[in-house]
């Protein structure tokens, strides 16, 4: 039987932190499964990586739809074993709770919380069988501190944080690491243009954050970085 290649699956790989993580993990020789909804943007990331020594698969689908995750996983798992899942895809609204529409709230919870949980559920049986694996959840400081105009987002990240803390305890016996990363303001397209214009000097670079995350991932030992809280030196916006 043909042996499967190991790969790192990065969700939300088409822009921002996910794109930087893709470039960083590729530089370090990891085969990649890059997913998000926009195939053309994923293809651009693959082109930028341009590394003939690794395999890079790009697949466009909506992470909030469990059937789409399962269908794509069936194809991916014919050739790859997922050694690391990076749950990075995320959305927000930057509006007051009273102004958020039900469809905005549903999209935020379905993508950030349920989508991440569905991804974990999908890759977990393989990791448990192999008694090895890493799950990295890109959380947010909004799960730890109050920011206005981010109620649904904070709920989604605080929910994922609680899920992840329980998961970590359940997975210790299976030798599966769970790493939660809580970034503060980072210069990416998630922010509206006016915020980027006003604060971009203060915001962190997604490339630097990705280096930090790769370092935490690459520790090969009997210890694990369980939480990384990374803030701009000058503090939150
Ligand atoms: P970004 O540039 O807007 O990236 C978000 C990514 O998620 C995109 O690749 C987007 O791709 C993907 N995505 C959104 N909805 C999706 C869906 N339904 N299905 C599949 N993919 C979806 O923003 P970012 O700042 O890099 O955000 C990455 C993560 O970091 C998020 O979880 C965010 O909450 C977290 N974070 C960001 C900051 C910050 O200040 N930037 C701070 C703390 C935490 P498509 O549009 O192609 O689907």
Q: What's the quick description here?
A:
This protein has seven helices and seven strands.
Structure write-up:
The protein has 237 residues and is α/β, with parallel strands linked by helices. The chain has one domain (5-230): Rossmann fold. The protein has helices at 16-27, 39-49, 66-79, 102-130, 151-171, 193-199, 206-218; strands at residues 5-11, 32-36, 56-60, 80-87, 133-138, 176-183, 227-230. Strands 3-2-1-4-5-6-7 form a seven-stranded parallel sheet, with helices on both faces. Strand 4, helix 4 (102-130) and strand 5 (133-138) form a beta-alpha-beta unit. Helix 1 (16-27) crosses helix 7, helix 3 packs parallel to helix 4 (102-130) and helix 4 (102-130) runs parallel beside helix 5 (151-171). The longest helix has 29 residues, at 102-130. The protein is globular and about 55 Å long. The mean pLDDT is 98. NADP nicotinamide-adenine-dinucleotide phosphate is lined by residues 11-12, 14-18, 36-38, 41, 62-64, 88-91, 111, 138, 140, 183, 185-186, 188-190.
């Amino acid at each position: 039987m043909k042996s499967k290649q190991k790969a790192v699956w990065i969700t939300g790989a088409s822009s921002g932190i996910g794109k930087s993580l893709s470039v960083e993990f590729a530089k370090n020789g990891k085969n990649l499964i890059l997913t998000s909804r926009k195939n053309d943007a994923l293809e651009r990331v693959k082109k930028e990586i341009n590394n003939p020594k690794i395999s890079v698969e790009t697949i466009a689908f909506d992470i909030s739809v469990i059937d789409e995750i399962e269908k794509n996983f069936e194809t991916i798992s014919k050739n790859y074993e997922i050694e690391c899942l990076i749950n990075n895809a995320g959305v927000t609204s930057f509006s007051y709770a009273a102004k958020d529409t039900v469809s905005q709230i549903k999209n935020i919870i379905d993508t950030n919380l349920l989508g991440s949980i569905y991804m974990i559920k999908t890759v977990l049986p393989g990791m448990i069988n192999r008694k090895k694996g890493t799950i990295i959840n890109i959380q947010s400081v909004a799960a730890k501190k109050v920011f206005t105009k981010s109620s649904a987002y904070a709920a989604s990240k605080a929910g994922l944080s609680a899920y992840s803390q329980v998961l970590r305890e359940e997975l210790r016996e299976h030798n599966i690491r769970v790493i939660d990363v809580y970034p503060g303001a980072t210069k990416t397209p998630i922010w509206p243009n006016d915020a980027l214009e006003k604060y971009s000097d203060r915001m962190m670079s997604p490339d630097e954050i990705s280096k930090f995350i790769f370092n935490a991932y690459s520790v090969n030992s009997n210890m694990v970085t369980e939480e990384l809280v990374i803030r701009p030196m000058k503090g939150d916006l």
